[in-house]
Specification:
The complex is a heterotrimer of chains A (201), B (370) and C (323). Chain B is mostly helical. Chain B contains 15 helices and six strands. Chain C starts with a helix and ends with a helix. The chains are: A alpha+beta (201), B mainly alpha (370), C mainly alpha (323). Chains in contact: A-B, A-C, B-C.
Chain lengths: 201, 370, 323
């Protein structure tokens, strides 16, 4: 009998305690943000899609088209093509496509890049009508960002540029090979001349 | 005696793959006699994504993002299990600061997983507010982890040899503030849920299974500890920086739903203790091992590494044939074993009890199906 | 008003005007209550609730009602048609008629019957019939199960309700609601009968199928409830009946325990509405705090705890009155 009454009283008290918690939260300010009227800022390391870093000195990207990012991507989403332009020391990217619809934002591409050419963007409001809208052309996006920043735009190499560069590279290679051959022959000729001169004495 | 010509039959009820008490796409076939269940059979496989098959076709590096998706609620522990297995295979040691960062982030993730379980479980039982309080707390954790990892849910944060990015001061102050805040909130949860007579009546002495049953079915995690067996891999097969911390392993006595609930709530408090100690003792130093090979091509061999996730024991078993792709990766997930006891426990219960029992196992169905 | 009186006669005129007023009240009340429920729920859950449609979502309910009216009235094939069509009407009508005897103010009462409280209790039993009709006619295994559960719950909780109301009637000495309000001149009955008030509130929550006793409409359980097969406006009628029923039981609670329209300064109607809506807020507060009670525990609670307590309360009231 006593336990019966005690149970009723403790049970009733527990219900009141629960109600006290809810009414306390009733008068607290709300914690939600009314998107899209109010928006939140992303944290500095937030992972949006990878994008080129705009180098501070050259105001352009640092990609040397080594294709390490393309090889390490788990979903094989990155397509890079590059060529060495005459007068420059390293290759430069001529095409950089990133199919964002399968990207798992793992970050392996940004970490493995030897020139740290990639960073995460802070874009999260991505919307499109077709899957093709999400194939990101990073050279084009870079131009947009450069325009927004007011720095000189890096031109995207066209087919003729690439062909000309390839031809120039091929020509330069030939020229080097010829030079190397000529040097070797000259050295051989010199070596052939020297002992008879000494022997003449 | 009048013969009515009606035989007492059971009827089949289908708790279909889509239902509101959703823990994933799980289907439970029930045979019921009136209001009581005579047979419950879980049907799995609706969420099979072929993770283990993907492992055979990807490098060790490329498989990292997959681990976060197997169990997305405690993704960092799965990352840790896989990274530790590969580190064992190629012989890397993680520096101390790296281990500490791994422990802090993993424990924060454990708390967020338990908070989500708490909210969703109470939603199953019919209380509509605690889930929103839990999600409010969870937002803090997600923001903290967002600061250092960059993601909010499916983290791909650990790398072979350590962690790629370091903590910053704001994270440390933020975590300390969060610990204080969560301890205060636990009192509210106590009053709102744990001491509530309706909740006690719904969970006390419901879904009881004995220690022998638990061992026989191979349960792990809080489902096992609710029956009184204090088996926690962080204690029995210590790994990472866990031997340096003081924490208890909460257990229950009766093996009912209420005990499993209490074990998880107390585990959250113990996780807070671990995080506090880790922040106090955080050493300086490198966060990645020195010589991490860019191409991982381990020698032939096999390795097994078990870690304690929020749901139980996650085991990663890697067989390498000397190639850059693993020959086989087997993921032993805790929810698969934990669900297997459902047919035995669910006999002679009401459907309302079945919902309570299923929730208390804390099953994440995508990890069962992998 | 005078024109109507000359044409129809006094009582009939009052009835006509009263019924029009009641229908208006019911619609506005449902509009307001649904908005209030969503806002109360939201603020208890630390979020704002409806904010888009109208100022802080004030006309959100109108938008929802328009949506429901635009829905197709699907009638499943094998239903029992007459009963299926009648069920929403039968669930709504008694609730509407219960407004006849409620004293909104000393003069605003449509028909002051001397069996007022008994009338309302009888009408609330009819609602149980309507639920059974709805569940049975749907030709759906789960709807029938839901309806049966609901009937069991309603019947079980009506008994302590009646007994609690009896103790108040003993004190007031009459069944008529305006007499009960008149008898609370010196002190409100809640001061002398707090236990009865709590019992009444619990039974009222169970009678209206609100959480924590909302098993018949539970979403996260299997049995989807007696109104599964109803769509569009028919479903809206069930819904409307539930909210109006909530108003009625809180109105009865105000009359029996909180002194009806009594209060200083403000006119009687305003005090009445304030008290009713305060009690409705308390019932909503219950819903957003407690988990659902399991069905067998619900019935056990009614029979083993509420009924003995109600009887004890009645006995003590009777003894005290005798002495």
């Amino acid at each position: 009998m006593v336990t019966y009454i005690k149970d009723i009283l403790t049970g009733f008290y527990s219900l009141l305690a629960g109600m006290a918690v809810t009414i306390r939260y009733f008068v607290k300010p709300i914690v939600t943000v009314q998107y899209p009227r109010q928006q939140l800022e992303m944290s500095p390391r937030y992972r949006g899609y990878p994008q080129f870093i705009i180098d501070e000195e050259t105001h352009t990207h640092r990609c040397i088209a080594c294709e390490m990012c393309a090889r390490i991507c788990p979903s094989q989403l990155i397509h890079v093509e590059g060529i060495k332009f005459p007068g420059e020391k390293q290759k430069r990217a001529t095409k950089y496509l990133h199919e964002h619809y399968y990207c798992s934002l793992c970050g392996l591409c940004t970490e493995v890049c030897p020139t740290t050419a990639l960073e995460y963007s802070k874009a999260y409001r991505l919307a499109g009508y077709r899957r093709e809208d999400f194939v990101l052309d990073h050279l084009k996006l870079l131009q947009n960002r450069q325009q927004a920043l007011g720095v000189p735009i890096t031109p995207i190499p066209t087919e003729q540029d690439i062909a000309a560069a390839a031809a120039a590279e091929a020509a330069a290679k030939e020229a080097r090979e010829k030079e190397a051959k000529a040097k070797a022959e000259a050295a051989k000729a010199k070596a052939a001349e020297a002992p008879p001169e000494e022997g003449k004495e | 005696m009048i013969e009515l010509g009606i035989e007492e039959k059971t009827y089949t009820l289908n708790l279909g793959p889509q239902h509101p008490s959703t823990h994933g796409v799980l289907r439970v076939l029930l045979e019921m006699e009136g209001e009581f269940i005579t047979k419950a059979e879980p049907v799995i496989g609706y969420g099979h994504r072929a993770h283990e098959h993907m492992a055979e076709n990807r490098n060790y590096h490329q498989f990292l993002p997959n681990m976060g998706r197997v169990d997305y609620l405690h993704a960092l522990a799965f990352n840790q299990g896989y990274c530790m297995a590969v580190e064992k295979l190629i012989g890397l040691t993680v520096p101390e600061r790296g281990e500490f960062i791994r422990v802090i982030t993993s424990e924060l993730n454990r708390i967020s997983s338990h908070l989500l379980w708490l909210g969703a479980y109470l939603l199953d039982l019919g209380a509509f507010t605690p889930i929103l309080y839990c999600f409010d707390d969870r937002e803090n954790i997600l923001d903290l982890l967002d600061r250092i990892t960059g993601s909010r849910l499916t983290y791909c944060f650990y790398r072979f040899g350590g962690v790629p990015q370091d903590l910053d001061d704001e994270f440390i102050t933020g975590t300390r503030a969060f610990i204080k805040r969560l301890r205060k909130r636990f009192k509210d949860y106590d009053n709102l849920v744990t001491k509530n007579i309706i909740f006690i009546k719904r969970t006390r002495d419901v879904g009881v299974f004995t220690r022998e049953q638990a061992i026989r079915y191979g349960l792990t995690g809080p489902t096992l500890r609710g029956s009184g067996i204090a088996y926690d891999i962080r204690r029995s097969e210590p790994y990472s920086a866990y031997p340096l911390f003081n924490f208890e392993i909460p257990t229950g006595q009766r093996g009912d739903v209420m005990d499993r609930y209490l074990v998880r709530v107390r585990e959250m408090e113990q996780s807070l203790r671990i995080i506090e100690q880790a922040l106090d003792k955080l050493p300086e130093g490198p966060i990645m091992a020195e010589k991490v090979p860019k191409r991982i091509k381990p020698a032939e061999g096999e390795v097994f590494q078990a870690v304690e996730t929020a749901r139980g024991e996650f085991g990663c078993y890697i067989v390498s044939a000397g190639d850059i792709k693993p020959y086989r990766i087997k993921l032993r997930v805790p929810s698969f074993g934990n669900l297997s006891i459902l047919p035995e426990v669910a006999v002679d219960t009401l459907v309302a009890d079945l919902v309570a029992i299923l929730g208390s196992f804390d099953v994440v169905v995508p990890e069962i199906d992998r | 008003m005078n024109l109507l009186t000359t044409y129809l006669g006094a009582t009939l005129a009052v009835m006509v005007v009263g019924l029009i007023g009641v229908i208006a009240l019911v619609s506005v009340n449902a509009l307001f209550l649904i908005w209030m429920e969503r806002k109360v729920a939201a603020h208890m859950q630390l979020r704002p609730g409806p904010m888009e449609v109208g100022f802080h979502g004030a006309i959100q309910t109108v938008a929802d009602a328009l949506k429901l009216m635009g829905k197709e009235l699907i009638t499943p094939e094998e239903v029992d048609r007459p009963i299926y069509y009648l069920a929403p009407i039968v669930v709504f009508l008694p609730v509407l008629l219960s407004f006849l005897v409620i004293p909104f103010s000393p003069t605003w009462i449509i028909r002051d019957m001397n069996v007022g409280i008994v009338l309302i209790l009888a009408f609330s039993t009819m609602a149980v019939l309507a639920i059974l009709m709805g569940g049975w006619a749907s030709n759906n295994k789960y709807a029938v199960l839901g309806a049966i559960r609901s009937v069991a719950q309603n019947v079980a909780y009506e008994i302590p309700l009646l007994i609690t109301v009896m103790s108040i009637i003993l004190m007031a000495g009459s069944f008529s609601l305006s007499d009960i309000v008149a008898a609370q001149g010196r002190y409100w009955y809640i001061l002398v009968q707090p236990v009865a008030f709590l019992l009444y509130l619990t039974c009222a929550t169970a009678e209206t199928n609100r959480a924590p006793f909302d098993l018949p409409e539970a979403e996260s359980e299997l049995v989807a409830g007696f109104h599964t097969e109803y769509s569009g406006m028919r479903f809206a009628l069930f819904f409307l009946a539930e909210y109006t029923n909530m108003f009625i039981v809180c109105a009865i609670a105000t009359v029996l325990f909180l002194g009806g329209w009594r209060g200083p300064f403000l006119p009687g109607v305003v005090w009445f509405l304030i008290k009713v809506y305060a009690l409705i807020f308390v019932i909503m507060w219950f819903r957003w705090t407690f988990p659902r009670v399991r069905f067998d525990q619900l019935i056990t609670f009614a029979w083993k705890i509420l009924i003995p307590l109600a009887f004890v309360n009645l006995l003590i009231t009777a003894l005290v009155l005798k002495l």
